[in-house]
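Data card: per-record layout.
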Amino acid sequence: MKFKTRFVRSAAMAGAAAVAAIAIAPAGAAPASAPAFLAGAAKVEITPKGAALPAGNTVRDPLFVRAIFLKSGRDCAILASVDKALVATATVDAARARLKQCPGDNIVISATHTHSGADLPAGWMDPAASKLLEDAIVQAAEEAAGKARKARMGFVTTSLDLNINRDAFDGRHWFQGNNPDGVSDKTMTVTYFVGEDDMPIALMMNYGMHPINYHLSGIVSADFPGEASRYVERRYDGAVALFTQAASGDQNPRLSLPLGKLMGPRLHVDQKDAVRAPTFWDLAAEDVRVRPGQKASPAPAEADWDDKRRKAVAEVGEIVTAMGAIMGETAIDAMRDPAVPLVADPGLWAGSATVTCPGRDRIDTLRREGMDPGYKDGAAVNIKVGLLRIGDVALVGVDSEIYTEIVQEMKKRSPLTQTAVIGLAGGLANSGYIYSDNAAHHLTFQVIGSRLQPGCAEDRIVDAAVGLVSQSGRR
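The structure for this 475-residue chain is written out next.
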């Protein structure tokens, strides 16, 4: 196993020449010799249009890259969220290389993980599309830097009961389904930046829940993250609201029946609203448990498919809008708490670590839940853990989808009580899902599809994150 830590204070990496590359001259800014904390934000639309829109797809709502630029003294940092399911490591690296004003570790780029961002199940690594995404990330970051002005930072934790554990067991089989007894973190953190007028310049909501409401529906949407961001942005004209995933590997939306009805005819889901009718997850699990030599029967043709689809789309839209409004209003309510201190010059620090664990490859590659596919030793798995510390707030980035128990342990051991984890940050590890040690025996598709051998990733990731936070205090 390999465990290598690299930590640097951002000022040492930036240098006067790099900082000079940023053309920022906000009115009323403090002299260069005086400490001043600046924040700016921008967003750039990335909704696919014309030939870039997959055949048969329709656009429900726009997709964006949103970015926050921060500057403290000679140090700077960038937070960027992308309305895509995934952002390839190569895209992240290319964007970081072009944003020379900030060191690479100080640039946190993550996907909101919307499953209706027109990039799943294939095509998200298309070179032309990746270049367009890279350009949009750079543009958003540079526009945010150009808008930077004197700011203060706040950080608040609140509770939001929208998610639910999705590793379910029916007494015989593991499957993806609502598990009310499973581990679920209802915590949402809001990191926000206000100007001298006490109005928000930008904020970042962080919550663990899969945006899957339009998955495989042919609808392009930013899902509830987009709804939440737009809700806040409507309230505060000119502000930019980012959404980032927390520990979402084992978390789905708790209200999933409309989603099942939208996808239903393809998966033989009963369209009736019978109180005791099987749920989408129940029937989907039955569909994927196909025995060797058998094939799943195709969904029956339905004469009234269009009418059912229109109704299902409307119902899902109502749920998605409601989730976004609740999330956005919860963030606004939390930011307005007068007891939360606003820090005028928090300071910036960044570092990164790479942890390596033994890998595995599936012997039976057919996707079936509830069965052990068998494994053989595979290539090592490399996971990047990053830290962006803003004052006493630790933002830990992990380049994969991570299970809740890992993040809970990380927060428990972190030297800073204000710790949040950003999943799918910095690209995409070759791990698949990062399951917790306690979930290693779960035969859901998340666990059986993971390339990680049990007993390594949880400890290594937590150790790396805690180590980075500890080192950041010894500047």
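Known properties of this structure: The CA atoms of residues 164 and 254 lie 5 Å apart. The longest strand covers residues 375-390.

See the next section for split statistics.
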